[in-house]
Write a structure and sequence with these properties.
It is built from 71 helices and two strands. It is an all-alpha fold. Strands 1-2 form a two-stranded antiparallel sheet. It starts with 7 loop residues before the first helix and ends in a 7-residue tail after the last helix.
């Protein structure tokens, strides 16, 4: 054994021992037990801490490496298990001066030139260990002043690390900072000298805390939740020491200048505001500036970020005794620190340059600094105003009584905001944000008091609307602008001062006329509010505003010269506002009074004579076209004509044909004297010819609007439109309106939907919008050429343009065309549909006709061209066509060419299609799919089918590597399917061989090499084949077509089954995947053919007897062929099972015994067992197996006798296992997916079929097995779902008795389950999976057990309802549980009325719980339940109350429910929709209460509730109470 070592302690204390040797001795003494050292841990801890204390006291100077190793040694000691155990027992102590070491270390690390940052992680680790042990932490945090110093150093270090992007130590530092903040907050509460606390917080903590919050918010990479928590802790500690109750008088004196109030301490609260002022001006103490090393301008930004939080804390603290006075004064003071004036911006920029914080060589523009600074100051002001508005600190009445000083200050603030530069000075992102913040500030001032904005209303409109270009605005600016403008409109609408608002708008236009470059309109949201405002105006006020706007317009020009007094841009803006006002008026109504109608006619005449006609005189007098002037006249004229036409329509005026003058053969489109008769045709001709030469797109657009308006007038004013003059005028107008379609280039463009914003770039979009919005008017009057032009343009905009990701206020031609194709109007335009089909066929021919080096391509192009050349005009008033219309020569020729193409494809010829060709074809088919294919006429459907078949054949012959090929084939088949779905009879098979057609379709699908890409084709192809065969069976050619196709399928399957690879007769090993792929398509085709034949055999389709016999024979032959090859392997299990199930049904219909099917059935049962282990991965295959087994289980009695005895129990157990797996393991989203829903439906259907076909004894076994699933926690939800399925079925005789015998036990078991689930804290998913299904199952049992369920068992259901705590249920679970509880109570009332009448107290308790929970969750301020769900719950409660009132006598108890409702109303306001649905239930209860119940409520309620009840009873008496005779 080695000898012990002594004397280590002396050598550690000796000054002669080198420090490196001391560190080695210290580590050896700590690790080795040979060293004899009493109280080893305490001695070494004291030595390490003393060494550090001497170093930082500058008694001993240590090298940096020695210092770092010393900190590492101290960290090892503190982290050791031995020292922690001693610290917990209180047997070890820390030097009381060590807190100064840590504080000094952190402070030194804050300085930019510090070199002691390498061991900061070690220092933080030591702090973490010390703070975790109460006995050691007392050294650091026992005194408040020491705690403040430590906190100050930590805040400064956080600023230093985050600003320098040194993020490694920040997480641990923030964790320690939270601990120190908690302790410092606790010590603050314990201090008795509040003056000392206030002064220390102001001088020591305010600056670093403000900087730290800003740095964490802008430069930290921590999680948002962590940053928010730390910032909240810092602000809480800071404001707890500042805004204390003892400082309330001092704050009031400083802020409000209250005489006679004593201040706190020597400096008082002025110290706090002085510190804030120094921070805002970036004038910190030099020492503090070194500690808080922020980027240029960072301190000011930190103060701006801090001000809203300080204001909110002050208002919530005890230091604010009067929020309306002291709080508003605090708002004024803090807003002063934001320094919103421009001089301060330049001062800030100069200060930054003088201090050297800005790189002069970078040449940073002072204006850029100004914009950024102003944006941040405006954001701070906005947050301060938002807090003031939320806290409601401004009271207009109190301020008016005290002289209106607060209103004056708010107006001064508004003046400052209006002086801020607008977005037009610089279109940069910072300017956009500045504009958004300024608009938000104005909105908040308006919300405080509209009198703030009233004196500067015109200026507010100018900066917020008139001088802002909405096309160039950022989304945030657009939202802020919409909020401000909508709030202005709403405010002045409530004040009934819309006339004042419009006067201010016009004044703003006139005042800024020299700055207007275009006419301004409203955004969609603001336009909606404008429409609501104008429509809600009283008739008298609306006409006064109309007259006032006319007077204002008359002041802008002189009739005697003639000339304008204002700029033409100003005139255009004013006429635009007048047009917007007139278009949204609601003066033209069938119920309009005679005086009002007379006044409206006078205003219409005045508008025409005093405004529009003088404008046209000015237009005719000018030699050059002034776009603003001419546009104003035409736009206002169009608006006037629109209103005039509306007036004629509402008055029901009758006009004869003589009112439309015959202008002769040379009449042109520019004669608008019909709409506006105050100008002669010659004047219109002169004006329009001059305007067309100017080539202004805006003016042309208005002329096109006038042309279409002219067509509407002609259609409305003429009783017969067959006269040549009227027809010629309509044709000329439509020709001009549609002529631009031939010249417009199809390219991306956007438009905001406003007439005034039409430009050369957006004209094509605006013009297309005009045509599409009037498509119902244009199409019936168009020629074939114009229809073809419109269809081509529509097709090009859909195919050639993609819908861009634009904001909601912009539209493109692709969006307009897509909306047109989906509109209801388009579905009624048969001529347009015909033209669209022709355009698509031509587009397909052009896309295929790129390379004509193959005969197949030439034949395909020939078919498509001949189909596109078949132009038989369809009138808009075309009546119903015959079932089988005659085909034209072009279609017959196309059918002949298609047959040649089909024969060529079957000879395995090969063509190549490029990816671009396939992509264009896919686009065309997608557009064709949007047409109402199921509603096409007979000829149109034939054209579509022939065109699709031609392309389908081409796809079958092509070998393309492009990914677009499967997409083209899928879309092609979908179009064919949709067309054939709407055709019950067709003349197609007169010119085309259906058997060859179906063979070619099958061949094309077989040649789809990649099965993974063609999986989605299966269902489409199956549906298409079903409809094709349906039309074949019903046609006269079905006798020859179906046998031919059946023979082809039989031979194909027979050739595969007799392959050399399967001579053993049991298993076919298909070597190529293509062969197995072909087999799958054969099975799909066979399944469809068998299904069609089976319908004929079962007489579901009426055909001649001879034809039916032939079809039945072919069906039997095909069924035998399918049965012979069912053992062959296949890729697609659904395809195989579809064919097998169809063949099985055919043999069942023939009563054939199926012993040969037993191996196949057993194979499917085994496959289903295997696939149940991975349900999600085998949904399609599981569904297919279930469908086949369902066919087997539901067979005729002969089949039931052939099946093995274990078949039914096995299938039943598999179905139950599947449903258990779905309901137990799958999430709600997965279980509700379409594929999973289909699988569940198939499994439930199979389960019910097996139960129906089972014997009573076996059925009892099944039922008992279901009961056992309720005992297992993992299968409770699935068991409840299965029980609901069983109880929905109508069982009879012995099976019903079996269910009834087990129901009482189940009901009681469910009530116990409900009580257990609701008695413990459960998550939302558990509640959904247990509580709600239990209630629904209970309701189903009550309904099923009517007449057989004992009364005491039925009454037990009430205990389960009472155990559900409605108010504690979250979100969607509340709505589901509420609905389920109402179902239980309603079932009890309807099916067990006697039990309900004997349990009225329990019923009332349940209803009370439901009512209280519904009112609680239906409030406007409640966010856990959606209002729509609450409305549905209110409907359930109304039905429950109706059943309750009908079945039970509630004369003595209904008043208590009404009292609960009234009592809950005092705690919050109900959502309007919820109240509207809930009040009828309360009215039903008031009906039952009668006079005595009403008196009881009127006297027993509290005074406050009594008023609520009186209002409720008044509404009940007025709107609901029955007053007739019984």
């Amino acid at each position: 054994m080695a000898a012990p070592i002594s004397g280590v302690h002396k050598r550690l204390k000796s000054s002669e021992t080198p420090w490196r040797e001391k560190l080695k001795l210290g580590r050896m003494a700590w690790k080795s037990r040979r060293v004899v050292l009493p109280r080893r841990e305490q001695v070494l801890l004291d030595w390490a801490t003393s060494a550090l204390i001497q170093h930082y006291a500058k008694k001993t100077l240590l090298e940096e490496q020695i210092l770092q190793e010393l900190w590492l040694f101290l960290e090892d000691i503190l982290k050791s298990t031995r020292l922690k155990s001693l610290a917990r027992s209180g047997s070890i102590f820390l030097n009381s001066s060590f807190n100064q070491v840590i504080t000094a270390t952190l402070s030194n690390a804050c300085q930019q030139a510090a070199a002691h940052t390498n061991f900061i992680p070690n220092v933080l680790d030591c702090m973490e260990v010390i703070l975790a042990q109460p006995t050691l932490a007392a050294v650091l945090l026992s005194r408040y002043d020491a705690c403040v110093e430590l906190l100050r150093s930590m805040l400064c270090l956080t600023v230093r690390l985050c600003a320098a992007n040194i993020q490694e130590s920040v997480p641990s530092l923030l964790s320690l900072l939270v601990t120190v903040l908690d302790k410092c907050t606790s010590l603050q509460r314990q201090q008795h000298k509040h003056t000392k606390v206030f002064q220390s917080v102001c001088e020591e903590l305010l600056a670093p805390a403000v900087c730290c919050c800003w740095v964490l918010n802008n430069h930290s990479k921590m999680l948002s939740s962590t940053r928010t928590e730390v910032i909240t802790k810092i602000q809480e500690n800071l404001h707890q020491g500042l805004f204390i109750r003892e400082n309330a008088a001092a704050f009031e004196k400083h802020l409000c200048d209250t005489p006679g109030s004593s201040s706190v301490g020597n400096k008082g609260v002025e110290l706090y505001f002085h510190q804030l002022d120094q921070l805002a001006k970036d004038r910190l103490d030099p020492s503090m500036s070194k500690l808080c090393a922020l980027p240029a301008g960072g301190i000011e930004d930190a103060v701006l970020l801090y001000l809203p939080a300080a204001f909110n804390s002050f208002l919530a603290s005890a230091a604010c005794t009067d929020t309306t006075r002291t709080g508003f004064a605090m708002l004024q003071t803090l807003c002063g620190f934001t320094r919103l004036t421009a001089e301060n911006d330049m001062e800030t920029a100069e200060n930054v340059q003088e201090e050297g914080c800005m790189d002069v060589d970078a040449e940073v523009d002072k204006r850029e600094v100004s914009f950024k600074a102003q944006e941040k100051r405006l954001v701070a002001t906005r947050d301060l105003l938002q807090t003031a508005l939320d806290r409601n600190i401004y009271r207009a009445l109190d301020d008016a009584m005290s002289g209106g000083k607060q209103l004056a200050w708010l107006r001064k603030l508004l003046h400052t905001l209006l002086q801020t530069p607008t977005t037009t000075t610089a279109a940069r992102l910072d300017c956009m944000r500045l504009t958004a913040a300024r608009l938000d500030c104005m909105r908040l001032l308006l919300d405080m008091n509209h009198q703030v904005v009233a004196p500067r209303l015109a200026d507010v409109w100018t900066c917020s609307w008139l001088l802002l270009d909405i096309m160039d605005l950022d989304s945030a600016v657009q939202v802020s602008q919409d909020n401000l403008l909508c709030r202005l409109l709403e405010t002045y609408a409530k004040l009934r001062q819309v006339d004042t608002l419009l006067v201010a708008m016009l004044e703003a236009v006139v005042k800024n006329q020299n700055q207007l470059s275009f006419s301004k309109t409203f955004s969609p949201l603001t336009l909606q509010r404008w429409s609501e405002l104008v429509q809600g105006l009283p008739v008298g006020l609306a006409m006064e505003i109309w007259q006032g706007m006319l007077n204002k317009l008359q002041e802008q020009y002189q009739l005697d010269l003639p000339q304008l007094k204002c700029t033409s841009a100003c005139l255009e803006q004013m006429t635009t506002l007048l047009a917007l006002f007139l278009l949204h008026l609601r003066l033209w109504d069938v119920n309009i009074t005679s005086p009002t109608a007379t006044r409206v006619d006078q205003l219409m005449a005045s508008t025409c004579s005093s405004v529009i006609s003088p404008l046209f005189k000015l237009c005719l007098a000018t030699k050059q076209v002034d776009e603003y002037l001419h546009f104003s006249a035409l736009h206002l004229c169009h608006t006037w004509c629109q209103l005039h036409m509306l007036s004629i329509h509402m008055k029901g005026s009758k006009h004869s044909n003589e009112s439309v003058p015959n202008l002769g053969v040379h009449e042109e489109w520019w004669d608008f004297s019909l709409q506006y008769p105050h100008m002669s045709p010659g004047e219109w001709s002169t004006l329009c010819q001059k305007l067309l030469k100017a080539d202004s797109k805006r003016i042309r657009y208005v002329l096109e609007m006038l042309c279409l308006q002219k067509v509407k007038m002609l259609r409305m004013l003429t009783s017969t439109s067959e006269e040549e003059t009227v027809k010629r005028r309509i044709e000329n107008a439509i020709n001009f309106a549609t002529s631009s379609c031939a010249t417009d280039e199809v390219k991306e463009s956007a438009w905001d939907g406003q007439v005034t914003s039409v430009t050369s770039d957006s004209y094509s979009t605006a013009h297309w919008y005009l045509l599409c919005s009037n498509i119902g008017l244009i199409v019936p009057l168009c020629t074939q050429r114009q229809l073809a032009l419109l269809a081509h343009y529509l097709l090009q905009t859909v195919v050639g343009e993609s819908c861009p990701n634009m904001s909601a206020r912009l539209v493109s031609r692709a969006m307009i065309s897509a909306d047109l194709l989906q509109s209801a109007t388009y579905l009624e335009l048969l001529p347009m549909q015909e033209a669209m089909i022709t355009a698509i066929l031509r587009g397909l021919a052009d896309s295929v006709d790129c390379i004509r080096n193959a005969s197949v391509i030439r034949l395909c192009v020939k078919v498509l061209q001949e189909l596109s050349e078949d132009s038989h005009p369809v009138s808009a008033t075309t009546g119903p066509e015959e079932d089988t219309p005659q085909l034209s020569k072009a279609i017959t020729s196309a059918a002949v060419a298609l047959q040649s193409l089909q024969k060529a494809v079957q000879k395995k010829c090969t063509v190549y299609l490029s990816g671009k060709q396939l992509q264009m074809m896919c686009h065309y088919f997608k557009v064709l799919k949007r047409l109402p294919l199921q509603c096409l006429s007979g000829v149109s459907s034939v054209r579509c089918v022939l065109g699709c078949l031609a392309v389908n054949c081409l796809l079958g012959a092509s070998h393309s590597v492009s990914d677009c090929a499967p997409a083209v084939l899928r879309t092609n088949l979908e179009v064919l399917r949709d067309v054939m779905t709407g055709q019950k009879k067709t003349s197609l098979w007169q010119a085309l061989d259906a058997a060859v057609t179906m063979k070619c379709l099958l061949l094309t699908c077989e040649r789809t090499q990649d099965k993974s890409q063609s999986m989605s084709l299966d269902d489409t192809y199956q549906d298409l084949m079903y409809h094709l065969l349906w039309s074949v069976v019903r046609s006269a050619e079905g006798t020859s077509i179906l046998p031919s196709f059946t023979t082809h399928l039989c031979e194909a399957m027979r050739s595969l089954s007799q392959s050399p690879a399967s001579r053993d007769g049991h298993r076919l090993d298909l070597r190529a995947p293509h062969e197995r792929h072909r087999l799958d398509w054969l099975f799909i085709s066979a399944g469809c053919t068998l299904s069609a034949g089976l319908m004929v055999m079962q007489n579901k389709v009426k055909v001649p007897a001879a034809q039916g016999d032939i079809i039945a024979s072919c069906t039997r032959q095909l069924a035998m062929s399918v049965a012979a090859v069912v053992h062959m392997p296949s890729i697609d299990l659904p395809a195989v099972t579809t064919a097998m199930a169809a063949a099985l049904r055919v043999q069942m219909a023939e009563s054939q015994v199926g012993e040969d099917w037993t191996p196949c059935i057993e194979r499917h049962v085994c496959s289903l067992k295997t696939m149940l282990t991975e349900i999600q991965a085998n949904l399609q295959n599981i569904r297919a197996c279930l469908g086949f087994l369902k066919t087997v289980a539901g067979g005729v009695p002969k089949w039931q006798a052939v099946l093995p005895e274990e078949f039914e129990p096995t299938v039943y157990n598999l179905a139950v296992q599947l449903l258990l797996g779905v309901h137990s393991t799958n999430k709600e989203e997965s279980a509700s997916s379409p594929d999973m829903a289909d699988v569940v439906a198939e499994a439930e259907a199979l389960l019910l079929i097996v139960c129906r076909c089972s014997q009573p004894e076996q059925f009892c076994t099944y039922i008992e097995g279901l009961q056992q699933h309720l005992d297992c926690d993992t299968s409770v939800c699935a068991g409840l779902q299965l029980w609901q399925l069983v109880l929905r079925e109508e069982w009879k005789d012995e099976k019903r008795d079996a269910v009834n015998s087990i129901l009482p036990q189940l009901v009681l078991q469910l009530q116990v389950l409900l009580q257990k689930s609701c008695s413990k804290v459960t998550v939302d998913d558990v509640l959904k999976q247990t509580v709600v299904p239990s209630l629904l199952t209970t309701a189903a049992m009550l309904q099923f057990g009517q007449g057989s369920l004992p009364d005491h068992v039925a009454g037990a259901a009430l205990h389960g309802c009472l155990s559900v705590q409605m108010q504690s249920l979250p979100g969607k679970t509340f709505a589901a549980a509420f609905h389920a509880t109402c179902r239980v109570l309603t079932s009890l009332l309807q099916h067990h009325t006697k039990v309900a009448r004997n349990a009225v107290p329990s019923l009332m308790a349940c209803c009370r719980t439901l009512l209280v929970a519904l009112v609680h969750e239906g409030r406007q301020d409640k966010g856990s339940v959606d209002s729509a769900d609450a409305v549905l719950c209110a409907g359930d409660f109304e039905r429950l109350v109706a059943a309750l009132v009908q079945k039970v006598d509630l004369t003595r108890t209904a008043a208590f429910l009404v009292a609960e409702y009234v009592s809950e109303l005092q705690h919050g306001t109900l959502h309007p929709d919820v109240k509207k649905s809930l009040v009828p239930s309360v009215y039903l209860l008031l009906d039952v209460c009668g006079m005595h119940g009403s008196k009881l409520l009127g006297t027993a309620l509290d005074p406050g509730l009594r008023e609520i009840y009186k209002a409720l009873h008044m509404d009940y008496s007025r709107y609901h109470k029955y007053r007739g005779k019984v």
